[in-house]
Each structure stands twice: as structure tokens, then as C-alpha cells.
Design brief:
single chain; alpha+beta; 8-stranded mixed beta sheet; 19 strands; globular
Length: about 500
């Protein structure tokens, strides 16, 4: 009999060629350049799913405009706790990207980050009152300084001509406006990071699907993979495994059998958007404008009209409209959801059906929505919208985390890092803010999974992220210092967006 194929060895295996794995790989290369790293991606292209620019809203979630991060309390006050936390995490990402540009890890920053105003939009007396309170709470905070409150009709029309044309201003409107926002193409960012990893000796295997993860007696992992073109298999032994496989992170972590996954399930939701690439319309809207979710709708349903900059071309996205499929990836299988149900998460999954009735109702209403109904939703933002100017696209799959709570389960909206107790494997589950907080998430993985090495890495990491270990909201001089540095290094200072010319509304 022929000898069995020899098991290859590597220090680190990264599963998935998206922004999370690319970021972790780049960080590890900075602090531990002697480690061998192997990356597997099941399709033949980098960043094919969640990190693809048309598969996410590309907001650069920094909580400047997303109203679900600033909920209103029962007493009418606005809670900014989550907004501050997300903004802090986004500042960490900006610092890493600035360092990476200055040190040749990344190339031209305009290929992945561009300045775009971030705007919150409400109408009606209650909505205007909420935005005034939100402005009062945020504008006094160091991380949100410079925010403006707008409730004047002419000012609204000058700043947002596409949204003003045909609008009935007898219904009052208001904006929270900040020029500090950015648009981020996480697909381009991922490709630049992957190019750097390839140059630095990382073995990147596309068209290679991870089929199984087996824990070994020495604490390492045997990662069995299959070439999707030839059908050939190989096994790679790794001291550490990171699962950054988007929706497939859940089943892969389940295959690993770590106890930290007990009780955890996932619920897939498709993001549908209307896209416009007509230059005449695109030129009349230069902002990311977020509204309020409908009463009873989940946080992920917050409507927004986004300017996108992809490969130098501008477009508009409006959505999301929820769709549904049991697939965990756009390129997944219809059996994904059903195969993810295990004895240890069955009651969590069933419990969500009881506790999340509003989500069920929302999904049913969205699935029944006609093309004309989608355009009607768009008209809240663009009163004279014509459906012929917009195309419906599926902007990726999101697998929301379900955790055990009591005898049932609860659906989480956010990003969750799962690490094994011994630090030998970690993975990322969930959705927004996701990519925008990738650097803080991966630093968290490094600290939790490499506690012995982390102290030695700290000086280098402090060079990469000067605010590491410090809350910028507690150190305003440091915030201004790193903000000015990242603005200059990312070449954002000379690309401040120009407001749409007056007279177009």
C-alpha cells in the first residue's frame, strides 16, 4: 500500500480570505515575522463574501450616523454608550491602516478609503426632537466634536439635493451631520493586505475548502482541506487556527467541537439593496444618510442611502430589504441552516422563534414586498425615485448569532469573537459593526489566544496603534494627535467632499 500523504506543518492557519483573516495575518507578520502562516479560501477570489464592496454597506461603522447605536431611553434621553465604544474601535482601525500605508503594508489609500459625510435623518416632530437630543448628547463628546444639527429646509436642500427634490417640507425634517465620515471598500483593503501577506511568504491557497478540524493530543489542530477543482485533499497541522470564514465560521467552529460553542446557533438573513449607478443621480447625493428603523423592526433593518466609492467609481445603495435563504453564504448550500442545528443548540434555536416574533413578522413583510413596495420605501429618502433607475442586488449573507438564554435562546445583533479556553482556535461570528472594527477584534484575538507572547508584542503594537490600551475619549490631546496623523497618512485631508452645489434642488 502507498504511504499516506504526509501531514504538513505550519504555525498558523487562517480560514477565509476576507478582512478579518487578512488583518490578523498582517498584524502577526508585524509582531512575529518568523511564524509560518497558511491561508485557505474556498473560492477562487479574495474577499468574496462579507468583505466584497457590494456585499456590505461600506459605511465604515464609526457610529457617527447609525441611529441603532444611539437608542432613546424611556425618559427621552439618548444613550450614546454603544456609539462611543464603536467609534473608539474604529479609531483603532484607522491607526493600523495609517501605519500600514506608511510602512508599505498597504498601497494607495484612496483605493479603499475616501471621505464622505455621515448623516442621520429623521422627519416628523418626534424624529426632529430625537435628533436634537442625540446631537446634544454626541456633540459634547470629544469623539463626535464638529457634529452639526440641521433643521432648516434650505440648508437641507443645499446639502442633500436628491433627497430634497419633491419633498413635502410641511413634514419637518432634521439632520445630524458630520464631515468626519468615510466610505470604505473592504474588498480592496482585503486584497491589498493579502498582496502584502503573499509578498511576506504567507502560503495562500484559493479554491481550497476546509472540510474538518481535529484537535490533537499536543493541543495543535489537523486541518483537512479539499481542492475544489481537483478534488485532492491534504492535511495541515497548525498550532493555532483562526476561522474568519463569514457565515461558514459557525459550522467550522462546530466541527472543531470546542465547548465554547455549546448552545450557539445562527440565523441567516440576506441583505437586499437597490443600487443606482446613473451619474446624473449619483452626482446629486454625496453622503451616507441613515434613518430610523420601523417600529418593531430589528436593528439590522435601519434604512440608509449610501454613497459608495468602488474602484474609483461612485454609486448609490439604498436598503436594506431583508431576504431569506437557509444558506450561510451567497455561494453556500441550502442545507447550511439545518445542518447547523445540534443537540446542544436546539433549544436556543427554537427559543428564538418565540422571543423574536417581531423579527419573524418583519421578515415575512419584507419577503412579501413587491418591487413597487421597495421603491415606496426608497421614496422616504428620494421622493421622486423612479424604479427604472435602480436595480435590486443581493448584498451578501449575514448569520446572526443565537445564544442560549435560560431554557431558550436570544438573537444577537453585532460581532462576537469566540476563542477556545486554551487559545488554540478562535473565530468571528455575527455582522455589523464587523469589518470596521476588524483591528480591535483581531487584537482581542491575539491577547486572548497568545497571552504569553502578547506582553512581548506590546511595544510593536503600540507603534502600530498609538492609542492601544487608552480610551481616546479620556485623552483628548491624544485623540487629536492620532486623528491628524491618520488624516494625513490616509490622505483624507486633501479630499474633503464638496457639498452639492446650490440650485440643484
Amino acid at each position: 500500500m502507498p504511504n499516506a500523504a504526509k501531514t504538513e506543518k505550519t504555525d498558523v492557519v487562517l480560514i477565509g480570505a476576507g478582512i478579518m483573516s487578512a488583518t490578523l495575518g498582517a498584524l502577526l507578520r508585524q509582531v512575529q515575522p518568523d511564524w509560518s502562516i497558511t491561508m485557505f479560501e474556498r473560492v477562487d477570489a479574495p474577499a468574496p463574501e462579507s468583505s466584497d464592496p457590494w456585499n456590505n454597506a461600506g459605511t465604515g461603522h464609526s457610529a457617527l450616523c447609525e441611529l441603532n447605536y444611539t437608542p432613546q431611553n424611556a425618559d427621552g434621553s439618548v444613550d450614546i454608550t454603544k456609539a462611543v465604544d464603536i467609534n473608539e474601535r474604529f479609531q483603532v482601525s484607522r491607526q493600523f491602516w495609517a501605519y500600514a500605508v506608511e510602512n508599505g503594508v498597504l498601497g494607495d489609500p484612496s483605493q479603499f478609503i475616501n471621505p464622505i459625510p455621515h448623516v442621520s435623518f429623521c422627519h416628523g416632530a418626534d424624529g426632529v426632537d430625537y435628533l436634537r437630543k442625540r446631537y446634544d448628547a454626541l456633540s459634547a463628546h470629544p469623539l463626535f466634536e464638529g457634529m452639526q444639527f440641521v433643521d432648516d429646509r434650505d440648508e437641507f436642500a443645499w446639502r442633500l439635493p436628491l433627497m430634497a427634490k419633491g419633498r413635502d417640507f410641511s413634514d419637518p425634517v432634521a439632520l445630524n451631520w458630520t464631515d468626519k465620515g468615510t466610505d470604505i471598500d473592504f474588498g480592496s483593503l482585503s486584497r491589498q493586505l493579502l498582496a502584502y501577506l503573499g509578498r511576506s511568504g504567507v502560503d495562500i491557497a484559493f479554491g481550497t475548502e476546509v472540510r474538518n478540524l481535529d484537535k490533537q493530543s499536543d493541543g495543535s489542530w489537523n486541518v483537512k482541506v479539499r481542492n475544489t477543482r481537483t478534488g485532492g485533499t491534504r492535511t495541515v497541522n497548525a498550532k493555532f487556527v483562526f476561522v474568519g470564514a463569514g457565515g461558514y465560521a459557525l459550522p467550522l467552529l462546530q466541527k472543531a467541537g470546542i465547548k465554547e460553542m455549546s448552545g450557539i446557533g445562527g440565523f441567516p438573513v440576506s441583505g437586499l439593496f437597490l443600487r443606482c449607478t446613473d451619474p446624473a443621480l449619483v452626482s446629486r447625493h454625496e453622503a451616507k444618510v441613515y434613518g430610523k428603523a420601523a417600529v418593531g423592526a430589528p436593528p439590522m433593518s435601519v434604512p440608509h442611502l449610501d454613497t459608495r466609492v468602488i474602484r474609483g467609481n461612485r454609486g448609490l445603495l439604498f436598503g436594506p430589504y431583508a431576504g431569506w435563504t437557509p444558506k450561510f453564504l451567497k455561494d453556500g448550500k441550502y442545507s447550511d441552516l439545518f445542518r447547523s442545528v445540534k443537540p446542544n443548540n436546539l433549544f436556543s434555536m427554537l427559543g428564538v422563534g418565540v422571543t423574536e416574533l417581531s423579527l419573524t413578522k418583519y421578515l415575512v413583510s419584507e419577503l412579501l414586498k413587491s418591487p413597487a413596495g421597495r421603491v415606496d420605501s426608497l421614496k422616504e429618502f428620494v421622493p421622486r425615485a423612479d424604479g427604472h433607475d435602480w436595480e435590486l442586488i443581493t448584498a451578501g449573507q449575514r448569520v446572526q448569532v443565537i445564544r442560549r438564554k435560560g431554557a431558550g435562546g436570544v438573537l444577537e445583533f453585532g460581532t462576537a469573537v469566540i476563542t477556545a479556553g486554551d487559545g488554540s482556535i478562535a473565530g468571528l461570528l455575527g455582522a455589523s459593526p464587523g469589518a470596521s472594527t476588524c483591528v480591535s477584534a483581531m487584537l482581542d484575538v491575539m491577547q486572548r489566544c497568545f497571552p504569553q507572547q502578547y506582553a512581548g508584542w506590546a511595544p510593536t503594537l503600540k507603534t502600530i496603534v498609538p492609542s492601544l490600551g487608552t480610551k481616546l475619549s479620556d485623552n483628548q490631546p491624544l485623540y487629536h494627535e492620532v486623528w491628524d496623523w491618520t488624516e494625513k497618512s490616509l490622505r483624507l485631508t486633501d479630499k474633503t467632499p464638496k457639498l452639492a452645489e446650490a440650485g440643484q434642488h
